[in-house]
Amino acid sequence: MAVTETDSFVVGPEPEIHGEAAGAGPPIVLCHGITATRRYVVHGSRSLERSGHRVISYDARGHGESDPAPPGEGYGYPWLVDDLERVVEAEVGEGGFVLAGHSMGAHTAVAYALRHPDRLAGLIVIGPVYLGEVAPASLEYWDGLAAALADGGADGFVEYIGANQGIDSAWRDAVLRFTRERILLHRHPQAQVEALREVPRSRPFESMDELAGLRIPTLVVASHDDADPGHPYAAAEAYATALPLARLVSEPKGESPLAWQGGRLSREIAAFCDDPAVAGV
Question: What is the pLDDT of residues 82-129, one digit of tens each?
């Protein structure tokens, strides 16, 4: 199937949220992780468009091309979900859709599902981290990362991750390379500093027990900890257990994380969307 041209969009008035849509068919909305951009969910793959879906992706506030938070607002999950609501209203309109998110985007997607459980045909949770509590030790890491970016720019940011994230040596060079690539894509570096301090302190929901009420077909994507310790496999397992209609998938141990493989991840998403429980057939 031919892929239609990508159309850019801006949802306003403020903050202006920049995004793009491509393809035709049942809509899939993609939400990226912290310090990433809209490219870093399926990593540029066009497989979903080719499989007959309209794919809508956008840069979260303060990320990529999107505006920083306006005065009086910030980067916590209530605002992130508000922005997602605006994108859905403008680019999806009425009717059900599939919502997918990675890391921060996964938490945003789950929080949206809790607000609007009847809107979603399916939910895809990729590399979740939050388990119902904000751990002080994790805040020390995020505050240190924010300070490294503020004081040392991209070099300081990458060096801090290399020194503190415990990446297996087999994956270290690749992780640091694409970390540098993505941090250089943001128009508003100071907004990244603020997001790094605020997002980890924000709760997308109060307790994992709330997920038991989400009777939405769900795909949970896990990655093994050797390559991606920042998104623990056990956290994804916890979501797959808590969400009543969830299925867990991952890469074979020793391979590159499924969350990094745009084409393969897209094929998993497409297969999930073809499930009659999701497609509504």
Answer: 999 999 999 999 999 999 999 999 999 999 999 999 999 999 999 999
Distance CA 57, CA 243 (A): 24
Residue 17 lies in a domain: yes
Give the CA count within 13 Å in the CB-facing half-sphere of 44: 1
Distance of CA 280 to CAs 48, 96, 272, 275, Å?
Answer: 18, 10, 12, 8
Rounded CA gap, 16 and 154, in Å?
25
Residue 145 to residue 160: CA distance in whole angstroms: 6
Which helix or strand (DSSP H or E) is residue 172 part of?
Answer: helix 169-183
1 — pLDDT class (breaks 50, 70, 90): very low
Please check whether residue 177 lies inside any domain of the structure. no
**77-91 helix and 104-115 helix, angle to the nearest 10 degrees:** 70
Angle ∠(29,32,33) on CA atoms, nearest 5: 150
pLDDT for the residue numbered 168? 82
- Cα 35 to Cα 161: distance, rounded to the nearest angstrom: 12
| Structure tokens, 11 | 């949802």
54 pairs with which residues across the strands?
A: 27
pLDDT, greater one: 223 or 227: 223
Query: What DSSP designation does 103 have?
Result: T
Q: Which domain holds residue 42?
A: 7-133+201-279
Short-list 91, 92, 46, CA closest to 270: 46
Instruction: Tell me how long the chain is.
Output: 281
Domain CATH for 263: 3.40.50.1820
Cα–Cα dist 77/3, whole Å: 33
